[in-house]
DNA sequence: TCAGACATGTAAGTCGTTACATGATTCA
DNA sequence: TGAATCATGTAACGACTTACATGTCTGA
């Protein structure tokens, strides 16, 4: 049961939060979802077009003047329905293609020094990632505690379409924090692996 | 520094172990490297062709008769050189696109029941994976201990081209086990995340 | 006035999957 | 003799990236 057209549903899902322009979508993904998702303009604009054609989203008349207007897209009832159907389907297992692991595996016929270099490099990469995630975690936890959200968080969470209850807002924040936790746990396990390997190969 | 043409170097690296046919390569990847790599025929055969054209690998004359001969490919000096250059380059960070995380994140406006369903589904998937990895780990560790390798392991490790020293063999097995350890640690962390989420959302 | 952010879009190319088509060999 | 496995290959499609082209608005 392979669910394709991931960009399609990602956009639909983001628009189910609030109406946005293509540029907004890109920014939201880059700032808030970068640890588990990515999109690029080459996909976003054509996909928005075809979503409009199918009546899944509506394109605004455009703010601004001249040839570069800002178009805001909002989800339609039909789009909401398609989104809810998609989200209920089991996600297909991610394709596994880890280049670092491949290099590590293939390095066994080379000097151990080379193998270690690959692992040390991986470790520092993941460690750096981890640092960033942890900082975000601290900020988010603090925000949740005192119910005061910094600009970046607001921009991702706010839903101007309709007023959210305190409960809904709390759930949004919890979910947001938990996706971050996933990133942290996984990256920590990678760092732990590196340490396991380094200690084994240097003795 | 984005290293593309991953299939190209994956094939080159596998052929640096021992000469193989396209079919062998597919089988090796499916059996031994499936937790961090995949390849399909649609990529393998055309890529082998172009590697031959560039003098990176050599195609045998073909065993068998008729139109379906078996062709064995072996790496050339030029290919070995290209492989060693590639492996020394830093691997580019994997593209992050985790559909489960996306669904989880986007489910915040839906009933908690739906969110939980996504997570429980993810958990059982990962748990199943983990079970398989752990079984392989036990087999491999036992094999390493008594220096007796089961057929599947032999098929992946053996290098008929030249006799390997005991040291080299030991290193190969260690590396093989360690790639499996990576899979185990990462999958364990995902299961741990699911548990964290479930306990948080059900209280 | 100039830099930088905001903003939209396309073309070309790469990469990867899927489905199909074909045939040989082995062994029960 | 028929099923399973071994074995090679292609065509069509779909997904994704990259680079480019263009233009607007805001504030120092």
Describe the protein.
The structure is a homodimer. Chain A is an all-alpha fold. The first copy, chain A, is built from eight helices and two strands; from the N terminus they run αααββααααα. In chain A, strands 1-2 form a two-stranded antiparallel sheet. Chain A is globular, with a radius of gyration of 21 Å. The mean pLDDT of chain A is about 90. The structure holds a DNA duplex (28 and 28 nucleotides).
What is the topology, as strand order, of the major beta sheet of chain A? 1-2
Major beta sheet of chain A, specifics? Answer: 2 strands, antiparallel
First-to-last CA distance of chain A: 46 Å
Poorly predicted sequence stretches spanning 5 or more consecutive residues of chain A: none
What is the tally of beta strands of chain A?
A: 2
Kindly estimate the percentage of residues of chain A that lie in beta strands according to DSSP. Answer: under 5%
H/E element order of chain A: HHHEEHHHHH
Radius of gyration of chain A: 21 Å
Give the overall silhouette of chain A: globular
């Amino acid at each position: 049961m392979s669910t394709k057209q991931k960009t399609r549903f990602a956009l639909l899902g983001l628009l189910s939060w609030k109406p946005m322009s293509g540029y907004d979508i890109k920014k939201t993904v880059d700032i808030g979802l970068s640890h588990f998702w990515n999109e690029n303009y080459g996909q976003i604009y054509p996909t928005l077009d075809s979503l409009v054609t199918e009546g899944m989203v509506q394109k605004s008349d455009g703010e601004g003047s001249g040839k570069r207007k800002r178009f805001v897209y909002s989800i339609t009832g039909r789009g909401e329905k398609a989104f809810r159907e998609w989200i209920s389907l089991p996600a297909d297992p991610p394709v596994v293609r880890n280049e670092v692991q491949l290099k590590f595996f293939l390095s066994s016929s080379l000097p151990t020094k080379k193998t270690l270099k690959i692992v040390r490099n991986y470790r520092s990469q993941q460690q750096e990632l981890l640092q960033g995630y942890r900082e975000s975690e601290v900020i988010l936890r603090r925000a949740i505690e005192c119910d005061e959200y910094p600009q970046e968080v607001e921009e991702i969470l706010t839903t101007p379409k309709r007023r959210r209850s305190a409960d809904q807002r709390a759930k949004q924040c919890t979910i947001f924090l938990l996706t971050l936790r996933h990133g942290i746990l996984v990256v920590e396990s990678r760092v732990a692996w590196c340490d396991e390997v380094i200690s084994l190969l240097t003795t």
